[in-house]
Design a protein that fits this description.
The protein is α+β, with helices and mostly antiparallel strands. The chain has four helices and five strands. A five-stranded mixed sheet has the order 1-2-3-5-4, covered by helices on one side. 29% of the residues are buried.
């Protein structure tokens, strides 16, 4: 399930943002764990052209997962997105503000037509297989 931290806003959601949200839902199902969105279009970020304010970026709480599983969670999300058009990383690792940041890759375009064409692909339960091999 996808949860939303109180105060998070979705004033604008661009096609790339809708695909990220779809990928989050797929990754949550695959992991069997809730994911919490901690920032949408709210917050200061880096100005009016920041991808958050354009509805093309979201932050996800990482502290809900043990440190060893955080790369697994990020991988599960990113496997649902085209790496040529999207990227994600663990921002501020080890700090109180640590979170997963996901956005449309700078210099790329992602239209409504692209959103209608692209669909995240579920690839099984990545969390179970990663825990078993740890």
């Amino acid at each position: 399930m996808i949860r939303v931290k109180p105060g998070v806003r979705f004033t604008t959601v661009a096609p790339a943002g809708f695909l990220i949200l779809t990928a989050l839902k797929a990754a949550s199902r695959k992991l069997g764990k809730d994911l919490t969105i901690t920032s949408g279009t709210d917050g200061l970020h880096s100005g009016p052209l920041d991808p958050h304010h354009l509805g093309e970026a979201f932050d996800i709480r990482s502290h809900d997962f043990p440190e060893a599983l955080r790369p697994v969670v990020l991988k599960a999300i990113m496997e649902e997105l085209d790496p040529a058009r999207f990227y994600g990383f663990l921002e501020a690792p080890g700090q109180a503000n640590e979170h997963f940041h996901l956005q449309r890759r700078k210099g790329t375009m992602f239209s409504v037509e692209d959103f209608l064409r692209d669909e995240p692909v579920s690839r099984g339960t990545i969390l179970e297989s990663s825990v078993a091999t740890s």
